[in-house]
Design goal:
The protein is an alpha+beta fold and 390 residues long. It contains eight helices and 16 strands. The two termini are 24 Å apart.
């Protein structure tokens, strides 16, 4: 798997490790799932978090215009107690009732890039940049000025939507001037960057990603099988409510290898309400309910384990990204006796894609494991990397 995202994100990857100058691709674990726990872990840059780096506006805008297709989302073997349909989970993951989600869905259905849409609007006498359209469909901003509202009316025609479909979904006017994204979103963006895997996996929910809770302590256990690929991982997360009424948390797990997919999910503390695997993003979204509404400053424990199908390449590192300070973070990696590494080291990144720093070798224990315990763990990406012999 890979890393985890706010609330919990991790990932493990088989890509070049920090010493090779490669980036673990989003927090995660061995195959590459990411999670999101108000503390994101990066197991290989996951849940994780950054398939589209800022680049040409046209390219990134066009990419983000294509939503994850419903058929690409499937439910893993999760013990939910009841059947959850793919369409229902997909709608939940993308926030299907919002202006950004409906716009994204319509663009994908029509197969139009943001460049084409911008050109068609210009042909009708309305100039709206691709960057603005991208901002609308990602929920960063919304149409409010007279010209923008006229563009929305024309968009409904271009996208074959009934008149008023998009207009009716617009919220109240937002304050003018440049503003910093809300706390949770802004902190996540500082670590993950724009257009991350986590943001795409959560859709409209990214804006309020685990705003009601924060992680105090996290314990990740990653297991590497005989072939050197990740066979599974488990996480225990102690969460504290920042406000009264918090009753759930989201986790995004990202995988680096397309062959590595979650095959079983077990929640031992909490109740699994959603398990959606987005194949196009190689990410798993979990929503876990606490079973009660927390009072402000109350704590709760969430524990879950995920088994992973064999990947095609060996895992070489595991990361978790965190947007908040953790009291403690414990990373453990267990290796099969037939796949022992010759060298292991820990490292930290200020954000996803940044060069590793604070690298230090760590010894292999008697149980064929390595661990890193970090107290007062600061926001950033925290990882363990290893190398195999010839």
């Amino acid at each position: 798997m890979s890393r985890r995202a706010d609330s919990d994100e991790t990932r493990a990857t088989a890509r070049p490790g920090p010493r090779d100058g490669g980036r673990p691709d989003q927090p995660g674990r061995g195959g590459r799932p990411g999670r999101d726990d108000r503390d994101d872990r990066g197991r290989t840059a996951a849940a994780d978090a950054r398939p589209d780096q800022p680049g040409a506006d046209a390219a990134s805008a066009s990419a983000s215009a294509e939503p994850v297709r419903t058929e690409e989302a499937h439910i893993t073997a999760a013990r939910t107690g009841r059947a959850l349909t793919t369409s229902a989970l997909h709608a939940a993951a993308t926030g299907a009732d919002t202006f950004p989600a409906v716009l994204r869905e319509a663009l994908g259905r029509r197969g139009l890039s943001l460049e084409r849409v911008s050109e068609r609007l210009k042909a009708r006498g309305i100039t709206i940049s691709q960057a603005t359209l991208s901002s609308w469909q990602r929920g960063r901003s919304q149409p409010e000025r007279a010209r923008s509202l006229r563009a929305v009316d024309v968009l409904e025609e271009i996208l074959d939507l009934p008149a008023g479909t998009l207009r009716s979904l617009l919220g109240p006017r937002r304050p003018r001037g440049r503003t910093t994204p809300p706390g949770a979103e802004g902190a996540a963006l500082q670590i993950l960057g724009e257009d991350s895997v986590v943001e795409k996996a959560l859709g409209a929910r990214f804006r309020h990603f685990n705003q009601e809770t924060s992680s105090l302590m996290v314990h990740d256990i990653v297991r590497i099988g005989e072939s050197g690929t990740m066979s599974g991982f488990s996480t225990t997360n102690v969460l504290r409510a920042g406000r009264a009424g918090a009753d759930r948390a989201l986790f995004v797990l990202s995988f680096d290898d397309e062959a590595a997919e979650p095959v079983d999910i077990r929640v031992t503390c909490g109740r699994l309400a959603e398990a959606t695997y987005l194949k196009g993003l190689k990410s798993l979204v979990l929503e876990i309910h606490f079973g009660r509404k927390l009072a402000k400053l109350d704590t709760t424990v969430v524990s879950y384990a995920v088994e992973v199908s064999p990947s095609l390449t060996r895992a070489t590192h595991y990361e978790r990204w965190s947007r908040t300070n953790l009291h403690e973070y414990l990373q453990q990696v267990y290796f099969h006796p037939g796949a022992l590494p010759v060298d292991c080291h820990r490292y930290v990144r200020e954000k996803v894609g940044a060069p590793p720093r604070a690298q230090r070798r760590i010894p292999l224990g008697a149980a064929h494991d390595v661990h890193v315990l970090t107290s007062r763990c600061k926001p950033g990406v925290h990882g363990v990397a290893w190398e195999y012999g010839p």
